[in-house]
Amino acid sequence: MADGPDLLGRTEELCAIASESRAEGRITDHLDALLAEGAPGLERTRVGDNLVARTDLGRPLRLVLAGHTDTVPANDNAVPRREGETLWGLGTADMKGGLAVMVELALAVSEPAVDVTYVFYAREEIAAKESGLEELFVERPDLLEGDVAILGEPTDGEVEAGCQGSLSVEVTLAGERAHPARPWMGRNAIHRLGDLLSFLAAHECRQPVIQGLQFREALQALTVTGGVATNVIPDTVTLMVNHRFAPDRTPEEAEAAVRELLAPFLEDTDVVTLIDSSPGAAPALDHPLLAALVDRSGLGVRAKLGWTDVARFAGRGVPAVNLGAGDSTLAHNKHERVEGDRLEVSYRALLDLISVGP
Amino acid sequence: MADGPDLLGRTEELCAIASESRAEGRITDHLDALLAEGAPGLERTRVGDNLVARTDLGRPLRLVLAGHTDTVPANDNAVPRREGETLWGLGTADMKGGLAVMVELALAVSEPAVDVTYVFYAREEIAAKESGLEELFVERPDLLEGDVAILGEPTDGEVEAGCQGSLSVEVTLAGERAHPARPWMGRNAIHRLGDLLSFLAAHECRQPVIQGLQFREALQALTVTGGVATNVIPDTVTLMVNHRFAPDRTPEEAEAAVRELLAPFLEDTDVVTLIDSSPGAAPALDHPLLAALVDRSGLGVRAKLGWTDVARFAGRGVPAVNLGAGDSTLAHNKHERVEGDRLEVSYRALLDLISVGP
User: Fold this and answer.
1) Chain A: residue whose CA lies nearest to B196
2) 3-state DSSP assignment of residue B136
3) What is A234-245 written as a DSSP string?
4) Interface of B with A (CB under 8 A)
5) What is the ipTM of this complex?
6) Is A201 within 8 Å of B194 when comparing Cβ atoms?
7) Chain B residues with CB-CB distance to A307 below 8 A
8) Bridge partners (DSSP) listed for residue B249
């Protein structure tokens, strides 16, 4: 598009400003200044290192476009490097390409057909409890109100609808200590893990179809620790099991399902403890704004199997999807990069949506 | 025995001198002084915190009586406490009762029928490489020469003949990392442990009979560690497997047997590494001195399933057994204790052996 904005240039500009998690002050200042200069019609509010910029045109629908400003630590890729229509470097895909699309939409469209809220938030790449988006939901929920949210996480330019939930349990199996030369005097807790792990290895998880989208659950042991000393039959072993569940189940239902699967391998003295739990988000492609996005853009649609911040919106009753130009498999990878034409596709789809409405 | 030595009193005297591993100086001084005073015919040699006292009567056979002077750390039982014919406290069973028997034999018999070497050595309760007995074997092997060795470790007053060997291997299984929401993109190394652990749980080890004694091998996972992070399908898990093997196998044969058992669960990228290995000791009850001990004392005889310092003697061609009054199951336990009549039985058996010979 000869007359469009320089999306790759804007992405490079944003990537040149380091913003590892908890150090998003400078990039937020920069975004604030860009919008103050180029989009004076937006109401801008800074909350900590988060920035929210909103139109207030009294439109019947409001669309939230949200993206995080932080990156994971650099991995020999702190300085963005351009090669033709490809930009390499930390944050190009995850997700300063998405931020560039948001900025250019704000600068280009002062009178959208729907009210638009641009949310730039901090600390997405670290522990969920530090999330800048959560900070906004707690401090200023009014700023995040809207009918639909679209997040710019890398999705290879497809619409990723909904997301699966995630929960983790810690399974501790008991045994009885003994001397390794006389193991029959005790009971080896590590040996008791065998059948449980074989079950997990063979277990076929549910693959429900929801609103036409194929989800696929997972149940995986992620860490294991056991043993007392090198001269003791171990009386304890602890397995952390993570479950990704489709959004047709609540966290409570998913936890009950996990406990039921584990039960045949447990005895009275064993303990299963819920460590953390995050709800999924149902796809909401029947919402007029999302239906319009999918119909008119021609973009592919798929289920999001991982957990993302769309669940924070969905949990507050705001249907949300991810749509970003980056290659999701290259996020957090030293070969992270984004292509100019992919940014273009995202920009075009969103430009059409906010210009025309549902 | 009204006219015998006060074995329980001597044990109490030795228990009152603290001698946790690496702090055996005081008790060794005390033993040295006792022997200097009461057994002037013995040649005494101090090597570090080890003490060797020998007759040199030109007898055709030499018997080594050996015991360690150290204890594990106290567990609310540092001060010995006597109740009738029972002495409670740290070191009573493991093995100052045995030291008391050795001291009283040295004081009572100045002209034994066999030459006798009394060995009091340090640092048995900690890492094998710190062993005071090993220090003696390296520094002054001449002092430990003999035809048979009897160690005073607690054996409930029975003769424990030979001992099983011990080896440990570290088994590392490989996988491939992936996101926990897409585990099928990788391979879970922890899940791969399932079949191996189920095999170990069900495996029946060899129970060979050697010289009429029943041995019983063991193969046990003692520690397990696996996992990368709570958001990664793990690509590695490490299991430490310990094998106790009967003395009809060399460590090399035992290692080969373990590798053969593990092989069906391993792939090319998995690694099995030998961590440590100690040979067992064949029972040598056909030696005239040991045959005489068993025949004339009427003591029970059984195979030693754990590893003990008898293997250090056996490895140097000196047949060795354990014989001690203490209850082996109470060693390292806060309820450790020894009974006077059990000390008497050990003392009587050894008194007869060194007084009469084979």
Assistant:
1) A194
2) helix
3) -SEEEEEEEEEE
4) 164, 166, 168, 179-183, 188, 190-201, 218, 220-234, 237, 239-240, 242, 244, 305-307
5) 0.86
6) yes
7) 181
8) none
Question: How far is the C-alpha of B132 from the C-alpha of B135, rounded, in Å?
Answer: 5
Closest CA to A311 of A279, A343, A341: A279
Per-residue DSSP letter, B158: S
SS3 of chain A: helix, strand, coil, percent, to 5: 35, 25, 40
Give the gap in angstroms from C-alpha A77 to the nearest C-alpha of chain B. 22
SS3 A221: strand
State the pLDDT confidence band at A128, using cuts at 50, 70 and 90. Answer: confident
CB-CB: which of B168, B191, B221 is closest to A197? B191
Instruction: Tell me if B197 and A200 make a contact (CB, 8 A cut-off).
Output: no
B162-209 pLDDT, tens per residue?
899 999 999 999 999 988 999 999 999 999 999 999 999 999 999 999
Cβ(A130)–Cβ(A123) below 8 Å: yes
pLDDT tens per residue, range B241-282: 999 999 999 999 999 999 999 999 999 999 999 999 999 999
The β-bridge relationship of strands B236-245 and B165-174 is antiparallel
β-strand pairing of B320-323 with B159-161: antiparallel
Given a contact cutoff of 8 angstroms between Cβ atoms, the answer to whether A254 and A167 are in contact is yes
> A186, A236 in Cβ contact below 8 A?
no
pLDDT of residue A1: 44
Nearest residue in B to A231, CA atom: B222
Chain A residues close to B327, C-beta within 8 Å = none
Residue A138 CA to residue A131 CA, distance in Å, equals 11
**Looking at the whole model, is its pTM more than 0.95?**
no
Q: How far apart are CA A351 and CA B258, in angstroms?
A: 66
